[in-house]
Each structure stands twice: as C-alpha cells, then as structure tokens.
Amino acid sequence: MPDLVALNAELLRDPDAIPGHPLVRSLAQRDPDLGFLCPLVRALVEIENGSCAAATAQAALATSWLVDDSAINRPEDWEAGDNLEVVEIVEHQISADFLGTSIPLRFLSEADLLYCSEEYKDHVTAATLADLLIQKDGLALLKTPNALVDWLIKQAGDPMGEPEGEDEPLCSIRYQLAGIGGVDVAGPALVNGYHEISLEDLNEDYQQRPDDEAFCWLHALTNSQAEQLGLSTASAAPGSPESDTPPPYPSWVAQDDDAEACWLTADQLQQSYALGRRLRNRERPIRLELVCGLDWDPRHDSEQFTEGELEAGGVTFPDGHRPLINIALDPEAGTAPDELRRLRSYLEKLAQAASTGRGG
DSSP assignment of 173-229, as one string? Predict the structure, then answer.
C-alpha cells in the first residue's frame, strides 16, 4: 500500500518532480481519475498534462487555506474538551460632541474570553486561495507575506466580546481610550468584567464620579493638546487656588461648556466595541495550509480525518483530510518563504486554469 501522505507532501514540496513521477504514473494506470491525490496535487498533475479543467483548478484553490488563529491561546498540552482562552483586540470609535464640534474618540480595546466548547473556532479567520485570487491583484499579494496578512484580516468577522450574561464565553473587556481627534492619548480605561466594572489610568488631577462606572475623556488631554485640537476656550475659568478637592475639569474647560456630556459609560463603550474592527496579534504568523481534502475547513478541523485513517483507508485521498503542509507567513516579512516561492508559478497556472479551463 503506497503512503499517500508522503506522496502528496513530496509532490507539493517539489512540484518540479511531478512530470514523469514513477509512483504517480503507476497509480494513475489503476485510477485514471487520480483519486489518490489531494485536489491541489491532482490539479498540478493535470496542469503538467495540459488537461486541467476549470472545475479541477477551482477545487484545488478552494482547498488551499490562509488561516489566522492568532487570537486563540492554545497551549501545547491542550486537548479537545479543555477550556480555551481567546484574546480579541478591537479598534473602535465614538463621535463626541463638544463646543459644537464632533470629536472622534479612538479606542483600542481587548476582550479576554474563556470557552469550554468548540465555539472558540468562531475567532478563526480563514479564506482560501480561491477567495484571494478572485480579487483584483490577488496573485500579486502572494509575493509578500505582509500583504497577505493585511488582506486576510479584512476577512475577519465582527467583534464577538460581550461582557454580559451567564452564557459561554465568560468575558471581560478593557476599553482603552487611545486617541482624541487624531491626538494620541494614554487612557483612561474602563474594565467591564464578570458582573464588575472598574476604572484604570485615571487622571488624579480631576474629580471622578463616585459610582466609578464612567470616565471623562476631557481628563485625558493636556493643555497643549487641547489647544492643538482647538478645544481650549477663551472663556475658560482661571486656575483656582490650591484646594484639597481636585477640580472636576481642566482649567481650559469653560464653566458653560457641556462637559457633563463628555462622560462615557460602559454601555456606550460596548455599543461602540460591537461596531468596531477586529485586529490581530501581528507578532504571530498566519499559515498557508496545503494538501488537504476537498471538504476540510479550519473552523471544523476536529471533525476531519487523521493521517492514520488515511493510511488505512485505501488508495483514495479522503475529502476531509487535514493539511499535510503548513507554511508560516511572517506578517512583517517583505519576501515569501522558499516553499511559497517554489509554488507561486504553479498557483498562477492554477488561477489561469480556473478562469479559462486550460492547463499547461
């Protein structure tokens, strides 16, 4: 019985060895439909034979996955059924009205989620090369990993963190004020945990509300930043003599300004968060996962075949088999790794065959 795992992996690592490969030729005599090959390698063989149909090329590209699971913290000793932590990073915005002007407030927030089921896979961002190559200049993106990462993160779904309720996942979100009107600031932050709200990085120069469930974004600005943004008013109250009680607002805020509307609550922050944009941990690579079955999906990988089942299952590559090759793509790299460079010309031929139905 031939080792189909080894055969498919060998051909993908060295596509130039496909023409005239003795084992492929031998098995093809018994199975002219090449069912012993995974969809990607099967398409590469047919391209070399000049007979790759559009459907074959499309199926191959649809089984070649770009995967980002950088939000999922899966330890090496993790087993199916164990709890799993997910960190969701979200950039979001609130438009605040002050002095008749709309001021954009930018937040960089982080949710810590704890899952006890496979629903954590909702945080996997995945797209196939078929999805990529139907985009304008999709082939050009294959040349640089950082461009691939930028494209893939645009496929991410909406934020899922929600700090209320009793259902899975348990969730805590830290909403961090990061910018006001284009000016970078550091804080304050509101933490909405499991039935508990707290504040961090408050400016102790100003009074805070006793309920500790809201913060004022005006407190995050220095006098020079307020002047830069055009928020400092000529009618502002002069500095008061030293007092044991801090003032409620900076001295550049006039007494008749509607500063009370500048306090942000947990509900406002969560509404903004839910409409935000999911980011990724750029220190972690994305992966190009190749040599898998037609029905494999990274969001359902625990249900797929194992290599042992493949080896014992005859000479047909099963539709649900997991990828045999993972190519790590560094988000900061300007050039593609060697494995991807060797494949690029073949992927270009596949893209042409997928659109025209012509191989070779």
Answer: EEEEEEEETTEE----EEEEETTEEEEES--TTS---TT-SEEEGGGG--HHHHHHT
